[in-house]
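Q: Structure tokens for this one, please.
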Amino acid sequence: MKKLWSSLIPKNSRSRPGNRATLFLLELAGQKKEGPASDVLVLLRLLQGYLAADQIEDVYRAYEFAAAAHAGQQRLSGEAYIHHPLAVATILAEMHLDHQSIVAAILHDVIEDTPTAKQQLADEFGEEVAELVDGVSKLTQVQFESKAEAQAENFRKMMLAMVRDIRVILIKLADRLHNMRTLGALRPGKRRRIARETLEIYAPIANRLGMNTMRVELQNHGFAAMYPRRYQILSRAMRGARGNRKEIVQKIESTIAERIRQEGVEGEVMGREKHLYSIYQKMQQKRLPFREVFDVYAFRIIVDTADACYRMLGIVHSLYKPVPGRFKDYIAIPKANGYQSLHTVLFSPYGVPIEIQIRTADMHKVAEAGVASHWLYKSGSDSSIAQHHAREWLRELLELQQNAGNSMEFLEHVKVDLFPDEVYVFSPKGEILVLPRGATAVDYAYAVHTDVGNSCVAARIDYRLRPLNTRLLNGQTVEIITAPGALPNPAWLDYVVTGKARSTIRAYLKGLHHDEAVSLGKRLLEKSLMHYSLTCNGLPADCLTQLLKELALAGLNDLLAEIGLGKRMAPIVARSLAEKVAGTEVVAPVSSPVSLAIKGTEGMVVSYAKCCHPIPGDAILGFISAGRGIVIHTDNCNNLNEFRGDPDKWINVQWEDGIEGDFPVELRMDVANQRGVLATVAAAISALDANIENVDMEERDGRHSALLFTIAVRDRHHLATIMRRIRRIDSVMRIVRKQS
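A: Here is the predicted structure, written as tokens:
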């Protein structure tokens, strides 16, 4: 086959094969009629438009290799598996990506889903293609403790590969887009999980890279899979409203076009329709009904130059009055993803607003294709802006990875950066910095430079001194004041919002506290071991090695650091070591005659969770929390669900016999709005020897209210008595214990 192709097109030729040569090749291969061959035909026709003959030959060779590797494999829809990588390659070919990206797209699942090794791909197609395929492949050989950890680690691997070569994420986005187009074959639970991941991670990444067309399709497919009923209702409403709007849209469009012709400016006017997911988001965020969201007429005007954009702005403002405060200039100050356009909102003669975007043709290409416009339009001046912003983001990702303690933390920081509602602020020299909405002066300091953030002590905002936790607003000028020897403050973590600031502060504090934690942990463990007549230095090596292996720790210092940081309780570790030395279960000594609320917590800090308010008689679990000791939750507390599969995070505990004291618990009552009902309920609670710590009231409608009581009780029996008494009050319709 290769010889035949070479005879048709000389190896050194840069000419492009005509359709006849491609069709002839497929006919000879006996593959023209249907199935994967038709997909190959579509792909090759696209590639003929911009790739050289020898490059197309590599693509076809990759198809043959992938088809052989995936032979016998089927997707859940029943079609041959090779259909999927060919579809992914076709999406990238529509973006005019280079031939190595197309080859990698066709091969993107062979490492993950077939016995093919990375080195085999490198030998066959080159090291660059092998690295691209490896960057997209999941970590299938590594065992993870949870799906969340596996997702986070695979995400970190992909993002680091993307930092080295941005084509990795373009292949992954195309892969996800085709998966979303064919999601119907999966079971509902898996559909929703993939849809949530798409809406939370992949659509925001496409947005961050300025790839608007791909973002919109990912969001709409994700919305349809995540909330199928809502999607259907909105789709139906859109179809119904579209007919009523069509005439008005045409009138406004023709009016604007006529005014443009009168002014002698070249420009193309087009009505645009908001996509379903953006309508749904606006309805949720602003609590608006569909008719109010959809009753906004949106138009886009495409002109030749940036100067013409501003002239066009004056024309539309002279035609319809602008809405004050609704003008945004993203040409002078591009968005973080390189997007440029003028946005304005006008009062229309039809009583509803008109949204207008004005941009050049090049800006429009970049707005739709983002970083992919580098390939699609051979990197014009505007697409280089998208490239610059993408490179800046990749640099920040690398810094986040270096500071993150683990993959879950890295994913958390990246998610923060993927949802920026931007604020634009100025440095004293007039440079513009883009930060997420809600960013503080500390976030700004870290955006300037890590060293500036680490040593900042105050800020001047619009030339006036302000505290570091001040939230920044659009257009403010910010100057950071630093001091030699100043250090990051742990309290900053309470209000910083950027991933870079949060990860840098955490990384600094971890390094600073490690040695102190080891020293403190050793003192705490020595003190606990004294009760068993043991010392750290006198522990048998095999017992210590056994415990470290059980806890998956590398050495004694790691164990001591975790004790010092409060991640493990010294008495529990000491008891475990003592049992290993004695070879049998030991009883912890009671160091104080004071009665304990929880059995087995001698010498430990114990606190009670405020989410579920456990009281004596409840089934309980102890959750080990850094800085709070053992936190007691009820066994059915929802906040424990994610930790149930991690036995190192919780311990079985039970209430001490004969426990005394008062414990807070929350009650919710639905009552009729009658005079004196609050006093009646309060009197009933007080009569049963329970103290009322807090009362809140929510009015649900004119006739009913919800009373939220926090009361102190002795145990479940005491609580049950109170609830029975309150139920007998005529105006109380319902009473429940409020839990997480």
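A few notes: Residues 518 and 558 are 8 Å apart (CA to CA). The mean pLDDT is 78.
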